[in-house]
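Researcher: Predict the fold of Uroporphyrinogen decarboxylase (URO-D) domain-containing protein.
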Amino acid sequence: MTPRQRITKTLRGERVDRIPLDIGGTESSGLTGIAYNRLREHLGLPPGRTQIFDTLQQVVKIEDDLRERLGIDTVGLLIEPRRWKPFSLPDGSACEIPEKWSPKKDADGGLVVTDDTGHVTARMPADGFYFEPAYFPLADVKEPMELDAHAAAIESFDWPAFADETLDDIAARARKLYNDTDYAIVANLQFHLLAGGQFLRGYERFMIDLLAEKDLAHALLQRLVAAYKRRAEAYLEKVGGFVQVVLVNDDLGTQNGPMMSLDCYREMIWPYQKELFGFIKSKTDAAILFHSCGAVSEFIPLLLEAGIDALNPVQVTAAGMDTARLKQQFGDRLTFWGGGCDTQHVLRNHTPKQIAAEVRRRISDLAGGGRFIFTQVHNIQPDVPPENIVAMLEAFASGRSYA
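Model: Structure tokens for Uroporphyrinogen decarboxylase (URO-D) domain-containing protein follow.
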């Protein structure tokens, strides 16, 4: 069975030869640059290009030699720049960043990125490992009618400013991946609705909008969905026949509970997700993979109704995210794309023996009856020893057979 068949059959709930593996097929299931470089060195692989495609999270593209070495079943169809340039990660190791992404030192020794108008859009503190958003272009909007003056910011939101490939460029890469490899191709569309409002308005402002300025929140979400639908139609017209999975995103949960009440979600966010996901499904046969961190179990029935096929990252340490219960409750309808190993505590700090026990537990909870794609919970962080990554993958390899 090819990796592409293994993933697509798993998403349809059909029997496969072994549990599929995703590392790096999405912007939330890969490795940060430092962890990637250390893993390559540990495995005896030569230095790679270490291309940082997600500049905020500092997540790297998986290169073919590592994908083959680890037996990964996926490849991400990412939104990329045409050209890259050399840079250094916080530990001093080498990487490449998009040519149009230009961090500069600030007065405090950190790094900042500015846009064409001089706004600082992202910032990494001197002792940091990631860039944080620093500019919210719609923060001062007071009335729905004012949104029209920000149409360009809404229309372009979620498409990285440094990603200057055309849709034809992306389609050419998709076609090549489809014809020249047998990996399952994951289209990373980077659509956010709740997080979209938070990034455009500011986190606190938009959360207040959802309760106190509902007309403004609805007006913004309507415009975002319209922009996303136009983008999805053009994008999927080019690549929809080549991809097997479409990734969409929205963090709905925190560590300790949902980010909002179920009633607020049902009124303010879900209708727009349902509209957008339904539109995507009308344009492609690809499955929809939905990413949300945190405690999201109570949203799953509505997410299924909205059209998702799989959930990532399955944050096993968040409230209400018990893997055995989730599988029992939703395993006949939902593919769990993640949950394979806790990254907050186990993968960072535990022994290889403890990591293996964690992996066996999650496989036992989630793999029965299929509909499980193994990956760790979210991206592997810079402080994770490469020995621990290998321990996780070795434990997975020894337990991935359905026989």
